[in-house]
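User: Some background: our group keeps a shared notebook of sequences we're curious about, and every so often someone picks one and asks for a predicted structure to add to the entry. Today it's my turn. The entry only has the sequence so far, pasted here. Could you supply the structure so I can complete it?
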Amino acid sequence: MSKIRPLITRFFQQELRNSNALFSLGLYLLGITYLIYLLGGNNAADSTWNTLLWVVVFFGTVSQASRSFDFESGDYFFYFQTLIGPGPTIIAKLVFNATYMSVLSFLTWGLFSVFYGNTVFSPLLFAAGLLLGCMGFSVVLTLTNGIAQRTNGNATLSTVLAIPLLFPILKLTSALNVQAMVGVPFIDVLDLLGALAALDIAIGLLAYLLFPYLWQD
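Assistant: Of course. Here's the predicted structure to add to the notebook entry:
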């Protein structure tokens, strides 16, 4: 834990210094949300509203995660390999990306509420779905981008590896959010919550176990 906390702080400091990336991401969120509004998204049904929300979140998180290991390449790679090690590095990176993506998803939810109104019947359940979905996105995209970084930045490989893992996470999360929007009792969605949490944990353990092999030069 003594190594993980400073790493997380460092990752956030790096992101704050990268003002161009933050501005571009903010402009993307605002621009695409307003564009959907102009195209008639304000009259969307609950399922369509949820789908549009996750389309915006998905491409935003993919854009953010594509830069996950930009600062750990070259000489920085050997620095981290020597002083930190793969275990603390991947845990810190997963926590950072999950936090970043969660903030991104809640900002998107806020923008959708401003433009289209908030039709979510169970906000706490909807928020739980967003958090679990972002955790899953973080694990998958961090792992696949780590693999891409160690193969000379092959983005195609990252995409091919990520899509099969992201699809079940996105499907479960979307189903959970739709249930929250229509007001299904919490007890009736425990199976969805459990399945999504179990999937996040399983892929997280896979990332933790595989990352040391990727870390080897």
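Suggested note for the entry: The CA atoms of residues 147 and 214 lie 7 Å apart. Residues 4-215 form one domain.
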